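Lab meeting, item 3. Inverse folding demo.
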């Protein structure tokens, strides 16, 4: 791969960072609770009915310890709460508090606005096509193959 060619994962990461940095800046400008990128990611993968720490870690692609630490930081500022899991006495469900739901709604509105800015910059058709491609099922990652040779 030549030095000027960026891989698709790099490009996807840059796009994600564009949204993330703009969202964090907008939240800060609005005087919202300061959160980290990891905390934003956790909030984005959390189900309305609640999610276990193990499932949050899997969805985020981080260790259970990282997810647990992130949950506790958000619990400490009142954005998340822990509730008993109805099917398991050993697990807790992590869910948004009323304050957390308001923060999530604010972030969602900001992201909607950022998507409109992106559409103004690259065209609505491009944004629509990008969304359609990213929403397609990709299937499971392929099995590793042994290089010929």
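The presenter then showed the designed sequence:
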């Amino acid at each position: 791969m030549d030095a000027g060619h960026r891989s698709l994962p790099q490009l996807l990461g840059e796009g994600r960072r564009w949204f993330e940095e703009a969202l964090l800046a907008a939240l800060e400008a609005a005087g919202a609770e300061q959160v980290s990128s990891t905390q934003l990611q956790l909030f984005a993968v959390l189900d309305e009915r609640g999610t276990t720490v193990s499932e949050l870690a899997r969805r985020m692609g981080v260790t259970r310890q990282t997810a647990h630490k992130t949950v506790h930081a958000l619990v400490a500022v009142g954005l998340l709460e822990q509730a008993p899991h109805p099917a398991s006495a050993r697990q807790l469900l992590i869910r948004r508090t009323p304050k957390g739901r308001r923060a999530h709604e604010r972030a969602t509105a900001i992201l909607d606005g950022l998507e409109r800015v992106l559409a103004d910059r690259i065209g609505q058709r491009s944004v629509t096509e990008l969304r359609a491609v990213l929403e397609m099922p990709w299937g499971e990652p392929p099995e590793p193959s042994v290089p010929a040779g």
